[in-house]
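Protein modeling request. Please complete all fields; requests missing the sequence field cannot be processed.
Requester role: graduate student
Desired output: 3D structure, token encoding
Chains: 1
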Amino acid sequence: MKKAGVVLLVGRPNTGKSTLLNNLLGRKVAITSPKPQTTRFPIEAVYEDERGQIIFIDTPGVFAKVEDQLGAAINEEATQAIQGQADVVVYIIDPTRKRDQEENRTLGLVRKLSAPKILVVNKTDQAQEYLADYAFLENEFDTILQISALKRKNLNRLFDAIFKYLPVQKPLVKTDDLVQPALNLDSKLYIAELIREKAFLNLREEVPYTVHTVVDEISERPNGDLYIRGRIITTHDRYKIMIVGKSGAMIREIGMATRKELEIASGKKVYVDLTVEVNPHWMESV
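Delivered output (286 residues):
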């Protein structure tokens, strides 16, 4: 009989959890950027092969210091996801950066879990200046692996380790009708997340954290082109000016980057119509 189970991907912000999820699946389901708060809610996605089925849960990074309602909400989402039922925990560390309070807080949550734990040392494609800081973890985990999520190095070994610890049982979800592996993302939410990713990558340091994105319409025109109408919502007029950019240059750049990725993924011509709104209270409703 095959194996199946829930696998948590856990780590402090920017350890490469979402990059790892995308490359384990062989398909992009989670947005990525070098900035914290890129992942704002847990992403659930299914993987299957001849050995069985894995439900991955990519958890947001836990912040040591929360400065707004959004940060508090992300911490709550992350904590609840980590404390949920899991068959295997994959704890991802980034030894290119010093350990900090975020690491300590996340590790404290992981230590409370009884499921088998795999320690994943990520970013082996870079100089691991602070690897020695994590030596104390060697006896706390069932398996330790060194990988590069970005370069897809040793992901096969990670799959082997995960399936080793999963229980023998029937699949947890039916996948016959799934068009993509994400279980909690519909088309509008996925494209909204994609727009937010492009905003994170293009905007100045402080602006992305004020941004929320919504897709109001996805439609196919008679000629087969896809039309997408979306909104970028921010908290202040000064941020709106930055998002729009001089003569609309920045909003066009965000829309163009979104369009290019969707055209590659869909094989269709895509038109992205973006507007920018100001709502000082949007964080209260997310």
